[in-house]
Amino acid sequence: MNGIINVIKPPLITSYKVVELIKRKFKVRHIGHLGVLDPIASGLLQVALGSATKLFDYFLSLKKAYRVELVLGIATDTQDSAGTPTKISDEVSIAGLEDVVNSFKGEILQVPPMYSTLHYKGKRLYDLARKGIEVPREPRRVIVESINILDIKEGEYPRVILDVVCQKGTYIRTLCNDIGEKLGVGGYMASLIRTRVGSVDLTKAYPLTEILERGSSIIDYFMPWSLLKEMRKIELTIKKQKDDFIKGKSVPLFKPPFLKKEFVSVWYEGNCIGVGRVSQDTLSPIAIERLDVSRLG
User: Fold this and answer.
1) Strands 200-201 and 187-197, bridge-based pairing
2) What is the pLDDT of residue 113?
3) Residues 219-260: pLDDT tens digits?
4) What is the pTM for the complete model shown?
5) What is the DSSP letter of 187?
6) Which of 45, 63, 222, 254 has the fewest CB atoms within 10 Å, i.e. the most exposed one?
7) Count of other CB atoms within 10 angstroms of residue 159
8) Which pLDDT tens digit goes with each residue over 25-80?
9) Whole-angstrom Cα distance, residue 197 to residue 228?
């Protein structure tokens, strides 16, 4: 079984636990997620089975959209609501908030948080952080394509709802922390929802509880490969090419369409029949679409 399930992850559960629950429910072996969500976060978590796990780098490269709640006036050691306060401001002003938020659009520098899965000398940063050890981290260039204020709930510690679209490597927790720091009052991420990965949004996903409680066949939850709008397409025009691809055989290409190795969605007679990878003049199958191939001719 090779495919991807779009899961709506609930908060207060790790991405690894989601994978383990699905693995246990459907008794599958080769399974993994395609981009971690923090334990307190919810929203779109994509879980790959079988050879679809080869698409990890492709999904990592896709832009992602989030809805985040930022609390101003308090900073924490984890940069989210799970942490211990490291700063509490007596007075919190939101004057200049819009200008500060807008300053984080485009290419910015971020220092990765200590509570992250990155490594330092062979050890994960979060393991060091839990022991009270802080190590130097180099700033990284990340791209925030858009960040917009949706709502502000004023009070002793104002709450700001933001919509963020960003590219790979961006830490939304750190973004919240840095906005609060630039305002001079501190800030932390209170909640986070991943709403979209590439062109796939929450309307194409299933709640984890539905999958675990009512699911009978994992194949029923596989995402149609045609949803991957950003993936380059390749159209097979010869029936034997289509037949070989569906059987899992590599397909020679008479006119190689790309100059480098690339993941592609594969089409025949206007139907997406799966995904593969082009390398030089060969198309190698990764996963086949679940459809009635007999009607394709």
Assistant:
1) antiparallel
2) 85
3) 999 999 999 999 999 999 999 999 999 999 999 987 766 667
4) 0.91
5) E
6) 254
7) 16
8) 999 989 999 999 999 999 999 999 999 999 999 999 999 999 999 999 999 999 99
9) 10
Residues belonging to the active site: 38
Whether the CB-CB separation of 234 and 274 falls below 8 Å is answered with: no
The SS3 assignment for 233 reads strand
| Two tokens, residue 55 | 């698409």
Contact 147, 164 (CB under 8 A): yes
Instruction: State whether the Cα torsion 276-231-270-254 is positive or negative.
Output: negative
Residue 133: count of CB within 10 angstroms of its CB: 12
Same topology, domains 3-62+198-223 and 226-296? Answer is no
- Of 271, 265, 273, the residue nearest 290 (C-alpha): 273
To which H or E segment does residue 88 belong?
strand 85-88
β-partners of residue 272 are 267
CATH number of 64-197: 3.30.2350.10
Options 1.10.150.20, 3.30.1380.10, 3.30.2350.10, 3.50.50.60; CATH for 3-62+198-223 is 3.30.2350.10
Q: Could you tell me whether strands 232-236 and 262-268 are parallel, antiparallel, or unpaired per DSSP bridges?
A: parallel
Q: Over the stretch 185-221, which tens digit does the pLDDT of each residue have?
A: 999 999 999 999 999 999 999 999 999 998 789 999 9
